[in-house]
Design brief:
about 70 residues, alpha+beta, four-stranded antiparallel beta sheet, about 30% strand, globular, disordered C terminus
Length: about 70
Amino acid sequence: MTFIVQASRGEDVTTTIRLSVVVAIAKALALAEDGWQVFIIGPDGVRHYPSEFEKLLSFSPALQSRE
């Protein structure tokens, strides 16, 4: 699955593509800690903001099997 991490800070904008939800969340959180406004677009096309990142874990079958 593809997860797109988009972030902006002032006039700077960055977009990265990650294949793992865990890596996408880690990247987004690192950017947020550095002062970027960030969101992740999941495979469903929906924007997920930091307060919703936990919902993205539902896209990872390996993580679901641990519940």
